[in-house]
Structure formats: structure tokens, C-alpha cells
Amino acid sequence: MIRMKFVSAFVLFFLTLQASGQVLHFSQYFNSPLLVNPANTGFNPDYSYRIGGNYRSQWANFGSNYNTMSAWADARVLEDRFENGWLGIGGSLIKDVAGSGSLSTTGAYGSIAYHQMLGYNSLLSGGFTLGYVQKRIDISKLNFDNQWNGNFFDITIPSNEPFAYNQVGYLDLNMGLNYAYFASDNVYFNAGVSIDHVNKPQESFFSSSVVDTRVNRRFNAFVNASIKIENLWIVNPNIYVSKMGASWETILGMNANRNLSGDGFQQLIVGLYYRNHDALIPMIGYQVNDLKFTINYDATISTLGNLNGTRGAYELSIVKSGIFTTSNNAIKCPTVKF
């Protein structure tokens, strides 16, 4: 019984660490572009705007799910005000809930990016995101070592933990660069780098006189490509790498769109990804015109599988693209499409 209590305490501590470092943890990172890199804001060839949503649920075997949700939107603007360039504006919301609501994170971000064509075949983009993040914890739901009476955790015993707040808030600044190369109507390459938490905001439920905890900068990079094979397939190999403090995350793999209707109106989406030392990630989706649904499952292959029964996470994304009726599409980007 005591051993199980300590295991539960360790899992709660692990969840807390994961949530405190959370900026992005979507396997379908390519379907949450504003969270990956601010320079993605307004970069959507052939469309004026995008609206998307993401939902992820994981660690259900640890008592309560750890859920991550986001909603985002962006648009191309002022296409007729710049020579071969335009602005992108957007916004995103993200919310994490760890355990039974013991630790939650809510963030609201606004982003802006500028995109400039370099000749006829390449594009350079730079962007910034500024947001406000609030973290909240319900201390009454937590147990500490001082409350162990030898048989069970007694919440009437003082924890003697020096908590000063049950919620904290701070401004968060991110920035990034993207480069795209359109080799032909059938081949496209894109790469980007970004830095999250440029201002290293202070984040702690304790007084600054007790501990001065700051959010580490997070460094992200991605490379992807789109390759059209006749009029049947568009293959999209990609890789995403992120480093925050001493922690690394790498996701690599490929997804592909199969033309079902001949004109690209209906498409089947299939893919397979790998997160280093953690999970295999099969995915499947369906696209109807400009509306895309994709779902994936993270199958745990790490030692964590011994605790969660190899149950990983599932994730759903929805993305809708469109064109403003008043848009003159002054800037034409090459793109790979059916």
C-alpha cells in the first residue's frame, strides 16, 4: 500500500513537470502551425485564411487523463500593399489539464508574420507571437510527505509547503523564421526555426524569495516537403526537433494524401510517425474540399508502457481553409496540389 502511494506521488510529480514545460505537445504538429512557429502565420498558399482545432488525451491509465486543447486561426492580409509580399495575422488558444484538474494551463496568443517572395521560387518569412499564460493549481487536491501518518495521507496535517499562490500569470514572447523553396509544381520544400519563451518569464507557485523559477527557452526546428506523384498521391515527409532545457523531442515520419475523386475534392490521408524513445504514431484522415479531419494514436514503446499498459494517447485535428470573397489574390505562390 505504501509503495502504491509513493508511485502515485511520483506520477503526479511527473505530470506536473510535463505540464510546467508544456508549450506544444501535439504529434500532429503540422496541423497546429502557429504553435510550432510564429512565421507560419498567414503562410497558406492558395488560401486567404485557416481555422483549426486540436485535441489530445493521454495517460488515462494514471487515474485521470492529461488533456491538451487548442484553437487557432490565421489570415493573409495587405497582399496589395507590398511588392511580392504580404502580412499574416493570427491568434491561438491553448489549454492543458493535468490529472483531476490539479494543474491547468491556459494561454492566449496573438501572432504576426511578414512573407516576402524571393524571385519566383522561394519565400522568406519572419514572425512574432506575444501571449499571456495563466497556470492554476488546486493545492487542496495534493498530498505531501509530511501528511503521511504511517497508514494513509491525512489532509488535516499541515503540509508545511511554502506555497504563496495557487495561480500565476505571465507574458510569453516567441519568434521564428521560415524558408520555402518551390522547385516545381510537383515538389516543394520548407524549413523553419523558432524560439519560445524568449523573455524567460518567471513561473512559480512559491514566493520569489523562496525560489526564482523561470521558463527555459525552447528551440524548435522543422523540415518538410511535398512531392506529387502523378495525380494520385502527394507525399509529405517531415521532421520536427525541439529542445527545452535538457529535454529533447524528435518526431519524424511521413503522411500522404490519396486523390479519391480525381479532382482532389475527396482525399484519404494516411501516415506513420516516430517520437524518439517514446511512441509509434499511425494516423489516418479524410479531406473534403477545404475541410480536413485527422486522427492519430500514440502507441507507447518506451518503458512507460510498463505503467500505462502500453496505452498511449489519441489526438484529433480539424482544419478548415478558405478564400475571402473580396480577396484579389495579388500574390501567387506555387504550391503542390491535386
Features:
338 residues, mainly beta, Porin, 3 helices, 53% strand, disordered N terminus
How would you describe this protein?
The protein has 338 residues and is mainly β. It has one domain (2-322): Porin, CATH 2.40.160.40. It is built from 3 helices and 14 strands. A 14-stranded antiparallel barrel has the order 1-2-3-4-5-6-7-8-9-10-11-12-13-14. A hairpin with a 3-residue loop joins strand 11 (266-275) and strand 12. The longest helix has 19 residues, at 2-20. It is globular, with a radius of gyration of 22 Å. Mean pLDDT is 83; it is low at 1-22.
Structure summary:
It contains three helices and 14 strands.
pLDDT average, as an integer? 83
Order of helices and strands: HHEEEEEEEEEEEEEHE
The backbone outline, from C-alpha atoms, is globular
Structural class, judged by helices and strands?
mainly beta
Radius of gyration: 22 Å
Chain oligomer state: single chain
Largest sheet: 14 strands, antiparallel, barrel
What portion of residues is helical? under 10%
